[in-house]
Write a structure and sequence with these properties.
Chain A has 16 helices and 17 strands. The two termini of chain A are 48 Å apart. Chain A is 42% helix and 26% strand. Chains A, B: This is CinA-like protein.
């Protein structure tokens, strides 16, 4: 088995340090590198200062075989990354004609005038291998230096992803001989980390040394990640499958999916399989449930639509909720949530209807119905199930958790269809 | 003026390196530290390995006055952070009775049985000042060591935020004498970074040395961040206000807000000011527009509801779109978007109605209407405006950009009301 290939990711930009933007690039890069068997050992964010960038490059050089740098290539960044790489590698800047042609074409195509700032984006360090960016004017660059590979990418996520997927990852796989690392993720909902840990303790203790388990608590669920390392692809797959088969009986009712399955994809697949259509009535989630469902490409095959009924008048006019029900029990009640789920199913003419209504906060709470009091329901042609959630005081969390729970309720109902 | 206080943020967890979770904590911490005049000079993510954590602590010690550590405190993490801090500081672990009482109470309150794993969370390095976590069982810790302050916090975002806001930030402000750093953010939409840069070039070049400008391109807009450093609070505010007054005439029509203003908050304020109500008809955005609007606490004061009409039948039954219009022009057409905006306004009985309809992709494109062809509209009692967007091929981007543009269209209409 060959040695582990180590990578470090360096992101450049004051805006990341100052928290003006959230860095989502490094998580994505981490996943992609892990999937080709490269071990990410560190991520570093530094500002737009040459000395800080140089120091981070020197440190990374000591620890890693691959150094991936994102950001600092924008025209108004004065291309700090390229200038710093010239200093670091001890080379000059050379205008790249292919890059220039692409920048020029990019602006012609959009009928915009090109500025010198833009033209300067075609200048690259002399030792760079140019990696074509099809989606923007900032170049991708590949360097080989003292036995390490350095890669510089733009910080704009979709440009970076395009370059990584189509240019860099294939070249890295080709360049390095890596051990095989296989992951299997089991996604659970409705059970806390420590309780899950105790339930599967015996199984976990019996795992072979080359298979590691990690608990990844996240919003509304805990993910179990199995990581197997070896040199026999088929064998690793088989061993992971065996371990999953062993643990499933202990946690079956809490498992909604595997690997990259998101709850919205899982219910989508179930709706397609069972040839059922879905509609949604949302009060406190305000459209978030629908937005999650429609994140899935092709969701129009089973999702017909939603009514976001923030005001009672809309609950009455669009969902057929009885005014007396609202008067007697209020909008946040089992009676109302039942009428919302059944109402949207009937009005929009779908097989299944789900609904949410509650107090997301921070305002609107009462002693009887404090912030976090939320009802969810799922109506099918067979029955309507309802459930009361008692959540916390944070609006965003209440919206996201309610969405997770109502989609899981839908999943449980669909399994029985 | 006192010297700049420098901070580094270290996040601990394989799940961050492997990209299993996106680190949103450090962006939030970066903002909060920046706002109290602390300069964040680096962010580092390392795995759950003692040697890597120790190395990152030693490096940070060389560069920073404040070292903030998040993560590695969960029960199943075997509290790697605490054990490593004991090694780093050369101290032993001591059970903290206040922490134990809180952990015990936390479980009693929830009627759950406490495990030894949980009990262990009350053990702290001997030199730790215990910082009470009101929202979970993982402790906050404050250390003073060789003239530096070390802070250890749980990785769960809402627990970390609670500890930072209520315990750590006040203590840091008290402990360090920091120069005054003031920020002013100008948020623009509908103009590219390099074009914005050229338009304000003369103004930018004339900025005094102690006021810096940064361009922060983000989805659907570019933010301009002015940073002023000095020791006279009132003077800095005045100088920033003067610079904003100078640049505004050049970019007025592209500016939707300042500082933390999000477009959904800006339109919310306008609707309240003008005492107008809003409804939304969403096709391709699938609920995302509504979800953004309802992220704002108190949005129920002006937002009555939405119809997410993914299927044509819902466009007809809920929005009153004419079947002939759909037959003749299709769902993605100026005629349809007009009827959707006017329809939702009428059906839900609001003053203003906005609508989106298009091909978000990846499927559904045609030669005449490729993926990214999206119509938006805004209907008031005075008129209905429509606009055709020609966006890219990425579903998520198309949904987010369309939302930004339709909310900005709403903003422009509200200003004229």
């Amino acid at each position: 088995m060959t040695n582990t290939v180590r990578a470090e990711v360096i992101t450049i930009g004051d805006e990341i340090l100052f928290g003006q933007i959230t860095d989502t690039n490094t998580a994505w890069i981490g996943t992609e590198l892990t999937n080709i068997g490269v071990r990410v050992v560190r991520k570093t964010s530094v500002g737009d200062q040459q000395d800080a960038i140089l120091q981070s490059l020197q440190e990374a050089h000591q620890r890693a075989d691959i150094i991936i740098i994102t950001g600092g290539l924008g025209p108004t960044k004065d291309d700090i990354t390229k200038k710093t790489l010239c200093t670091y590698f001890g080379v000059g800047m050379v205008r790249n004609e292919i890059a220039l042609a692409l920048v020029t074409g990019f602006f012609e195509k959009r009928g915009r005038e090109m500025t010198d700032l833009n033209r300067g984006q075609a200048d690259l360090p002399a030792n760079a291998t140019y990696m074509q960016n099809d989606w923007g004017t900032a170049p991708g660059m590949w360097f080989e230096h003292e036995g390490r590979v350095y890669v510089s990418l733009p910080g704009v996520p979709f440009e970076m992803k395009h370059l990584m997927s189509n240019r860099i990852l294939p070249k890295l796989t080709e360049h390095f001989k890596t051990p095989i690392i296989k992951h299997k993720m089991i996604r659970t909902v409705g059970i806390g980390e420590s309780f899950l840990a105790e339930r599967i303790e015996a199984w976990e203790d019996a795992l072979p040394d080359h298979i590691k388990l990690a608990y990844l608590p996240s919003f509304g669920g805990v993910k179990l990640r199995l990581t197997a390392t070896g040199d026999d692809n088929a064998l690793l797959d088989q061993e992971l499958a065996e371990q999953v088969a062993k643990v499933m009986p202990l946690i079956e009712k809490n498992v909604y999916g595997f690997d990259s399955d998101e709850i919205e994809n899982v219910v989508g697949k179930l709706l397609v399989e069972k040839n059922l259509t879905l509609s949604v009535a949302e009060s406190c989630t305000g459209g978030y449930v629908s937005a999650q469902i429609t994140k899935v490409p092709g969701s129009s095959a089973y999702f017909w639509g939603s009514v976001v009924s923030y005001s009672n008048s809309v609950k009455i006019s669009q969902l057929g909720v009885q005014p007396e029900t609202l008067d007697q029990f209020g909008a946040v009640s089992e009676e109302t949530i039942r009428q919302m789920a059944e109402g949207v199913r009937k009005t929009l003419g779908t097989n299944v209807g789900i609904a949410t209504s509650g107090i997301a906060g921070p305002g609107g709470g009462t002693p009887e119905k404090p912030v976090g009091t939320i009802w969810i329901a799922c109506a099918t042609d067979q029955r309507t199930v309802t459930r009361l959630l008692k959540l916390g005081q944070y609006r965003d969390q209440n919206i996201q958790l309610t969405t997770m729970y109502v989609l899981n309720m839908l999943r449980e109902e669909l399994i029985n269809q």
